[in-house]
Write a structure and sequence with these properties.
69% of the residues lie in helices and 2% in strands. It is an all-alpha fold and 356 residues long. It has one domain (8-350). It has a two-stranded antiparallel sheet with strand order 1-2. Helix 3 packs parallel to helix 11 (288-304) and helix 8 (221-238) runs antiparallel to helix 9 (251-274). The protein is globular and about 60 Å long.
Length: 356
Amino acid sequence: MIAARRIASVDALRGLAVAAMLLVNNPGDWGHVYAPLQHAAWHGFTPTDLIFPFFLFIVGVSAALALGPRVEGGAVPAPLCAAIVQRGLRIIALGLVLHALAWWLLNKPEFRVLGVLQRIGICFIAVGLVAVQLRARGQWVLLILLLVGYAALLQFASPTLEKVGSLNQRIDTAVLGRFAYEWNAATGVAFDPEGLLSTLGALATTVLGLLCGGLLRRDQPRAVLLTGVAAALVGWWWSTWLPWNKQLWTPSFALWTGGLAAVALAAAHVWIDRLGHRAIGRAFGLNAIGAYAGAWMCTLLLAATGWMAPLYGNVFGPLGAVVGPAGQSLAFAVAFVAVWAAIVWVLDKAGWYWKV
């Protein structure tokens, strides 16, 4: 196991990202959701599009805090790399198990291979190996190569940046086929928002987190802030011809969201670690993967047993008459997060932390 140096602000940001995941993933009624709580349909950006990039950014920060001292202390690389790969594979395996349960219990026509946990596991392995093998200068070079290389593929090797016909869609169709998130049996077209090529953009976000984690470990929050501002500005400028797109995880999107995550990290570090304010979300952060997987199982069982609709209608229905369908949906999502906040709070008080 890789035990990270615990910084309360990092745990809090990780936890807030997980809580936000639960909020937007469990609205009760997908037909009535406030616009900011939905992902952009294709090109564009909503607050919800920040959540996954924030989490992957924190994966990189945590890798810097956990591995940096060991590498600088002269630890043998091979055992560290083995531990990184093993843990990443466990995260990927957990994602596959959850998808298998959904496929079985909900009678889904196809099994999805990739997904959120699988992407986290892949990025965890990659950024962990980078942390062990490359120093800061090499990490910066890698980040630039990822951004420029992926941008070149999208702009010169992809026929279009629309979903159908894009290089991402063609690769997902050729490699994943019916095992992708979206599969059209009639046309044979597949696409996955956590697909193969877009992993390059997600990895860039994670490497940016690794670099900012190194700055934070050296007690340089101002450098983290300036890095974040610079990344966000470049991402905003780049979006004028390479649009923000979460499903493609375009380089402009990676820099924009990763930059905002760095600004949030710098602010949280000063607010929590230096000024001593409460680390809201920390309990979620200490049981991040467990809370995500547990919430997934909870939603899955409610849907598979047929309890979801009665629960939503009978308990939250009267509220809908007052606040409207979208307000009812939000109330369910908030209640769902509150239940899991209570669970992770109890686990934290008991000192129980589930590590994959």
